[in-house]
């Protein structure tokens, strides 16, 4: 089981580092942006507001991976 934990740990660290770099990039862009808080919403976001929301995508990805892990563990430990 140790190799699987190592792989999951590396994936987790990669996701965390990617999230940190992405967040710092977004913060830098927001600081450089004008202070116009009432801009219009882009048309692509208006078309699919839920698919463009990173929180919903994170929840979907978590539950998808959780189901895959449960299915995988059921196959391994039978």
Give me the strand/helix succession: HHH
Indicate the mean pLDDT. 82
Binned strand content? under 5%
**Count of alpha/pi helices:** 3
Main sheet overview: none
- What percentage of residues falls in helices of 4 or more residues? over 70%
**Rg, Å, rounded:** 18 Å
The overall strand count is: 0
Principal-axes geometry comes out as elongated
Task: Give the end-to-end Cα distance, rounded to a whole number of Å.
Answer: 15 Å
* Low-pLDDT segments, ≥5 res: none
What would you call the structural class? mainly alpha
Keywords:
single chain, 78 residues, 3 helices, mainly alpha
How is the secondary structure organized here?
Blueprint (H helix, E strand, L loop, with lengths): L1 H31 L10 H5 L6 H23 L2
The gist of it:
The chain has three helices and no strands. The chain is mainly α and 78 residues long.
């Amino acid at each position: 089981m140790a190799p699987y934990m190592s792989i999951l740990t590396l994936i987790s660290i990669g996701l965390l580092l990617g999230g940190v770099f992405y967040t710092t990039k977004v913060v830098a862009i927001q600081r450089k942006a004008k202070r116009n808080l009432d801009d219009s919403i882009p048309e692509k976001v208006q078309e699919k507001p839920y698919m463009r929301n990173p929180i919903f995508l994170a929840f979907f990805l978590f539950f998808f991976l959780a189901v895959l892990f449960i299915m995988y563990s059921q196959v391994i430990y039978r």
